[in-house]
Amino acid sequence: MSDLNPILSGSAQSIAAYQEAIEQSTQAVVQWLKQPEMYQGKTVAELRERINLEFTSQGLGNQAAIERAVEYFLKDSLLVHHPQCVAHLHCPSLVISQAAEVLINATNQSMDSWDQSPSATIIEMKLIAWLREQVGYPAGDAGVFTSGGTQSNLMGLMLARDAFFAKRGHSVQQHGLTGALSKIKVLCSENAHFSVQKNMALMGLGYQAVTLVKTDEFSRMDISDLQQKLADAKANGEQVMAIVATAGTTDAGAIDPLGEIAALAAEQQIWVHVDAAWGGALLLSEKYRHFLDGLELADSVTLDFHKQFFQTISCGAFLLKDARHYQLMRYQAAYLNSDFDEEQGVPNLVSKSLQTTRRFDALKLWMGLEALGKKQYAEIIDNGVTLAQQVAQFVSEQPQLELVMQPQLASVLFRFRPQNGDLAGVALLNQRIGDALLASGSANVGVTEADGVTCLKLTLLNPTVSLADVKVLLASVVACGEQLHNA
Amino acid sequence: MSDLNPILSGSAQSIAAYQEAIEQSTQAVVQWLKQPEMYQGKTVAELRERINLEFTSQGLGNQAAIERAVEYFLKDSLLVHHPQCVAHLHCPSLVISQAAEVLINATNQSMDSWDQSPSATIIEMKLIAWLREQVGYPAGDAGVFTSGGTQSNLMGLMLARDAFFAKRGHSVQQHGLTGALSKIKVLCSENAHFSVQKNMALMGLGYQAVTLVKTDEFSRMDISDLQQKLADAKANGEQVMAIVATAGTTDAGAIDPLGEIAALAAEQQIWVHVDAAWGGALLLSEKYRHFLDGLELADSVTLDFHKQFFQTISCGAFLLKDARHYQLMRYQAAYLNSDFDEEQGVPNLVSKSLQTTRRFDALKLWMGLEALGKKQYAEIIDNGVTLAQQVAQFVSEQPQLELVMQPQLASVLFRFRPQNGDLAGVALLNQRIGDALLASGSANVGVTEADGVTCLKLTLLNPTVSLADVKVLLASVVACGEQLHNA
């Protein structure tokens, strides 16, 4: 963006053009926000048919390009802020997050060297220090913003692996994996995020390295089974390089018993990584902060701000308790972090990250905390957890609905269960309810499985959603279920 | 964002508040764009001192939060679009990219399931198909948008590794690495991006698995040394799982001989991944497209649109020639891609990506292509390459400057060389020139090494920069160099 532009025709890159383009896009968003339907309901086939890419030679200019994006993209986007949009850990965003994005994108700072992001680098480091305080970690700035939970989990697992080998005098960074790899295990619960498996495959240890620990009736890691699995591992000559605990499983919102897990791990000096991508929001909670007791004992933590912190995608963080472990992934490139710069104390975030070029996503959280303050932030986070409890109570009172599990964070697992129906068809029926509601454009409800039971899921992140809104949604579920069942 | 908000005080999340926040941020950006200095020149220590995080309980509200972000972040950001900001592969962005970001962030679609991003999913898939056409790949949509080059390179290396083992009847995804790992090698040039090493460490094979092939006088992979290294590997009982060719090295912009590399690799059925994070911009070039001849022979390709495609961070892509290889990383999660959905033909991008939650970055490239058209896009890309040739000519005519290498893409490597100076101090002198210019706020010039020679680097991506601008910058370099040298 510059006012000078000898190449592009007209002044498509001028400051005035910037203002016009932002104004036009913002107006389009405003119209879209007023759209009453959650979704226009087009099918995959209809969208495939409708969207065609044919770029011209001379270009349409900014205005027409925005108009076309509105027509083909915006109008057929899902209204994530709609009260009936509750399928996923996919949040409506704060207005301040939108404002932060304007600054992030206009400045386009890149976090891979200080001279591409001077103030941004310092803000990110200070925010990491602040997050560490919230967790109860020692003072410091070991940690980094990430593209999301999957990447943060990858960092935790990679450092756990490399620390495991380092203790045995071997550098994975330099020399790669070695020894009887099939004997190296990671333990996590049956309800841990699939990124544990995916990341272990990426890291060369494979799904086979993941030992699943049983869960209790609330999808939390069963401590007695963890003890058993640790004993089994020892008996089999296996070595446990890490335990991944989850604070907020994707479906049930279950929080594993963090303190007990950490105590067991400490006995054998096993790395504990906590995937708190969802539940980490409770760091700011006034009512539910104690759900995270024990988080401070973990060696590394995943946080995600594009979930229940209401920031736009992408916005995640990885925190590392002991900064010395960062040495395990240090790399030096002359053009980013020279010896000379390091001696001068120039900060170097590229060595703390799996990305090179990286957005200044930290600004969103900083501005969110500034704008809302800790108390308001706590309220919008707590709201979802409290609402889920109320919804569960209501669901359990409805004859055609069955509560599948008591909520723990902000999700409710339940299913439609016709009173005269055979149980065999219930799974497919619930799947079809979810699809029919989405196809009608009226609601997006999650369809998932809990302990082998196909069920529906409400993920009640949105702080503007009331119990009355959810009752409307549940009435649609019942109406849709009856219609499909009787058809 | 919603007009209804029973939780947050006032109407901080209303549509009106959204409009006000965008307007306020945009105005702040406009003022900042008019700032004449490239950077205000604060030191690391000054920024550390100045920026303090103290969040209030009640919050400051949107307006004050934006004001504080302007004061502490925006004013001390680097003006990436400034003509004297030429240190890194860090581009000024198109106005249309800023407009696209407004839509991306307001809708906050997540690409990990179709029901979180209906139109966005289809647009991304069609854009991947279009990019494949530009490369010369068979029709299809195997590929995905990524957070950037490092992640795209990781996908290429991971699939190369897993295909290597699959041919030998072994699934790394299921069972992890096995066998004599120290015998498995990846070949890349000495000038390949450090993400090759970093990713090999992450993947469990370590830096030791990377065999560096010598480069010629233009930092391109030396084919005779590649032949030698392949022969050496065979003689040592090593197996080459991939060759990573670079199309646009970070400093020199060198493009390895893609066709010759592919031919050698084909003889032994070795996977070729091309890191075209920078040089991939030439896919749109009118003058220089032939530099990429042979790219279509690669098994996988990295492209980055937040470099010479002038998009904001993040915006990258990974392309996979043969879609069947995607089976190597397939994973199924009930809540994202159920059997039922797959049978119904619902697209599933999460299985093609290393991320789960993921931004709709593809929109930026789509809108950029719509707005500029292919011809204007070609012109702004070609401009940098042509300018670099002119600058190199000029540099070689200056008595106090030494051209270190002939440019190939849009970068110029050179150094200040005092006529009466001892050569021993030249490296430090050039380092100090770079630091002094940045500290003065007048310019950001890269400092790097080429073949062990510390030199300065101009990365001339910005299409609004003219030869006259660069001459001003070079005069500052000389003046600064003389001052430091004579001090």
As an assembly, this protein is homodimer
| CATH fold label of the largest domain in chain A | Aspartate Aminotransferase, domain 2
Give the number of domains of chain A.
Answer: 3
SS field, number of helical segments of chain A: 14
Major β-sheet strand ordering of chain A: 1-7-6-5-4-2-3
Mean pLDDT of chain A: 94
Based on CA inertia axes, which overall geometry of chain A fits?
A: globular
Task: Give the SSE string of chain A.
Answer: HHHHHEHHEHEHEHEEEHHEEHEEH
Largest interface: A-B, 186 and 184 residues
- Give the distance, in angstroms, between the N- and C-terminal Cα atoms of chain A: 58 Å
- Gyration radius from CA atoms of chain A, angstroms: 24 Å
What portion of residues of chain A is helical? 40-55%
**Mind telling me the CATH class of the largest domain in chain A?**
Alpha Beta
The total strand number of chain A stands at 11
Please identify the structural class of chain A as seen in this structure. alpha/beta
- Strand proportion of chain A, as a percent range, falls in 5-15%
Specify the biggest β-sheet of chain A.
7 strands, mixed
The CATH architecture of the largest domain in chain A can be given as: 3-Layer(aba) Sandwich
Residue ranges of chain A: pLDDT <50 for 5 or more in a row?
1-9
Task: Name the CATH homologous superfamily of the largest domain in chain A.
Answer: Type I PLP-dependent aspartate aminotransferase-like (Major domain)
